[in-house]
Amino acid sequence: MNNHMLQKGPVIILLALLCTILWGTAYPAVKIGYDLFAISDADGFGKLLFAGIRFFLAGLMTLAVSIVLQKRLVIPQKSQWKGIALLGLVQTTGQYIFFYLGLANTTGVKGSILYALATFFVVIFAHFLFLDDKMTLQKIVGCVIGFAGVILITMEDGGLGGGFAWNGEGFIMLSTLSSALGSIISRQVSQGQDPVVVTGYQLTGGGLVLMLLGIAGHGQFGMVTVEGVALLLYMAFLSAAAFTGWTMLLKYNPASRIAVYNFLIPVFGTAFSVMFLGESIFNLRSLLALILACAGIYIVNKEPRSD
Predict the structure, then answer these.
(1) Which whole-number Å values give the CA distances from 78 to 56, 73, 75, 209, in the listed order?
(2) How many Cβ atoms sit within 10 Å of the Cβ of residue 78?
(3) Tens digits of per-residue pLDDT, 40-54?
(4) The whole model's pTM is what?
């Protein structure tokens, strides 16, 4: 493991940038997908069907990567399936039910900034659940700064279609809560298992549940076009590629060295929402909210200096 290519500074930076850029594109891609598939605002089950297909395909792609890396299909032991199933229900099904429904009722910029909550929830949960991951003054400061940014963006009454709606910003917050719980569960489930394999199975299973929910609720696509299918395949690819790349970085490097790059996800999510959705970030409150949220993530994850 020593001197592995993925431990080299330039490689870490480039791969972390690639992963966060891919995750950042997901915010406008979801909203564009609703238009390309003509999923009506009232068709919540259609949105779940859209999400389910994406993550089911992403899981299959991730498992394909694991087969290439390990030269065989790894099948978890019987005792491991329960944890993987729980992870899939929380981190994929639960998280993206709220994400897809919530993003339909808020802007990509707001959704990107609210993503910061996932990092702060993880820090808080870890303090109570893990003896080796207690709260520190640095983490408290980071959480306070980050929450200040989240409060700013949710209280906004200006150019981003401001205000707070439970089926919009509220659902995005519940999505980040599910994401944080998933991270805690993942830490336990991945012990002694290949994280890429675990990710592949939980994405496939969680995506399948989303699909079945969409079908059971008679969700439908108003139309299917080449552009829409291409976007859906890209979204599946971005999930598989980003999860796999991030997992590989975590395998060969300390978590604190990699997690610090999480602050880039709101940055790229905001930038791509402005670029592809025509949303605005050019007002003082929105810019300050983004800066505070990103600064909070950076501070929470920054490895303390050793004297």
Answers:
(1) 21, 15, 9, 20
(2) 7
(3) 988 999 999 999 999
(4) 0.86
